[in-house]
Every structure is written in structure tokens, then in C-alpha cells.
Write a structure and sequence with these properties.
By secondary structure, this protein is of the alpha+beta class. The protein has 3 domains: 51 residues, no CATH class; 121 residues, no CATH class; 36 residues, no CATH class. A hairpin with a 6-residue loop joins strand 1 and strand 2. The chain is elongated, with a radius of gyration of 24 Å. It starts with a strand and ends in a 9-residue tail after the last strand. The chain binds zinc ion (2 copies).
């Protein structure tokens, strides 16, 4: 679906897709054109004002090749052909996770209170929802999120010291305790680095208006890159 948006400087009309809603585009004349939000775009085009959910809309636009939009890197704004195929794992729209519930207890509750079953099914339906959120990111901006020696070393140290600690603990307790402390430290470092990377990835994604709305819907979404150009989650 394409909408036409006027440039107030030169009068030219720019054709934009739904994915450009809320974005700032540059007209050929150099003027910065603000694309209205999706609701306004649809109303101006005489369409029903109901909005598709961002998750569905994004999946559709990626399918037809309209995302990622434009040519600008989400990090530095320079033109780039580089795209990272990031995915938002938006599994929990509801904050309660039924996955850990004791099976017998769940069965009992469902049997005793059939009304709860529907709610539970809805939750299950939403688990595992993964939305592709391809992002334009130049090589330079990928760097800080790419593979790193620190991350690799922390992961390696965690495993090495963790396993050694278990083997040694009963024979040489002080050495076992020391190794365990190092393993914990490495684990903490790895977690901290990954958390910071998640925050950076979200900040970059939120610069795309449609992705911003997706992350509003799913504030706990975890960003991953199956291609492993970026090391995130
Ligand atoms: Zn213009
Ligand atoms: Zn960049």
C-alpha cells in the first residue's frame, strides 16, 4: 500500500509505504518532509482508520520487500547497503509465563475453573512469536555489536572454570572455591555485555517508527541476529 505525501517546499508528491509512517524523508529539493503517522495516512487516503498491529504489518512489509526502508544506516545516518537480519522475539505480550506452572496444578485449575482455559490458550498462542526486523546498519556501526574477544573470553572462562571447580571442589576446596569465583565473575561479565548490547540494539531499532511501535507492544522482546553478524542475546 502506497500513500502520497506532499512536499511543502516544491509541491512534489512523494510516494511512501506504510513502513514510512512517522518518518522524516528528504525530498529531491532538499526539504525535509515529515510523513504523518499511519492513522493519518490512512484517513487522508480515505481508508478505514483501523490500524493493523505492528507485528502483522512488519511481517507483511518484510515479505513484500518494503523493509528496511530507505538507504540510511540506523546508527550514523550515512547511506549503506548493509542490512542485518535482526529478529525480535516478542513471545510475551502478557507478563505471566505459564510455561513454569506445575502441570498437575495447571490441570487441576483448568478442570476446576474452565473459564481460565481460554486465557491460557491465548497466552500459549502468543508464545514464540518472532518478528523479523531487518535493520540497515553500516559496517562501522555493526562493529561494537559484532563478535568480541571479551565476550568470547568470558564465555570460555565461565565454562572452563565452572567445570574445573566442580571437579576440584571436593579434593582441594580452596582451589575449587577460587575457580568458582572466577566462573561467576566471567558469567557476570558476559551477562553485563549482552545486556548492554540488547539496549543498544533496541535503541537502534526504535529509530524505525514501525519497530518503535512493535517494541511498545512487546517491551520485553529479545533482539537476536540468527546470522550472527551481531552478537546480542
Ligand atoms: Zn521538495
Ligand atoms: Zn552507520
Amino acid at each position: 500500500m502506497q500513500f502520497s505525501v506532499p512536499c511543502y517546499a516544491c509541491g512534489k508528491r512523494l510516494l511512501v509505504s506504510e513502513g514510512a509512517a512517522g518518518a522524516h524523508l528528504q525530498c529531491e529539493c532538499g526539504w525535509e518532509v515529515m510523513v504523518p503517522d499511519l492513522l493519518t495516512l490512512r484517513q487522508q487516503a480515505g481508508l478505514p482508520s483501523h490500524e493493523a498491529r505492528p507485528a502483522e504489518l512488519i511481517a507483511h512489509l518484510v515479505n513484500v520487500g518494503e523493509l528496511p526502508e530507505g538507504r540510511a544506516c540506523a546508527g550514523c545516518g550515512q547511506d549503506t547497503d548493509e542490512v542485518v537480519e535482526t529478529v525480535a522475539q516478542c513471545e510475551r505480550l502478557w507478563s505471566h509465563d505459564p510455561g513454569d506452572t506445575n502441570v498437575a496444578l495447571a490441570w487441576l485449575v483448568h478442570w476446576a475453573l474452565p473459564l481460565l482455559v481460554k486465557e491460557s490458550e491465548e497466552r500459549v498462542f502468543n508464545r514464540g512469536l518472532a518478528v523479523p526486523v531487518p535493520l540497515r546498519l553500516c559496517k562501522g556501526c555493526q562493529g561494537p555489536l559484532g563478535p568480541s574477544v571479551l565476550l568470547w573470553a568470558a564465555g570460555f572462562l565461565k565454562l572452563l572454570c565452572g567445570i574445573s571447580a566442580v571437579l576440584v571442589l571436593f579434593f582441594v576446596p580452596w582451589l575449587g572455591a577460587g575457580l568458582l569465583a572466577v566462573a561467576l565473575l566471567a558469567w557476570g561479565t558476559e551477562r553485563a555485555v549482552r545486556r548492554r548490547r540488547q539496549a543498544t540494539a533496541r535503541r537502534l531499532l526504535r529509530r524505525v517508527p514501525l519497530y518503535d511501535r512493535l517494541l511498545e507492544d512487546y517491551p520485553n522482546a529479545v533482539i537476536v541476529d540468527p546470522d550472527e553478524k551481531l552478537v546480542l542475546g
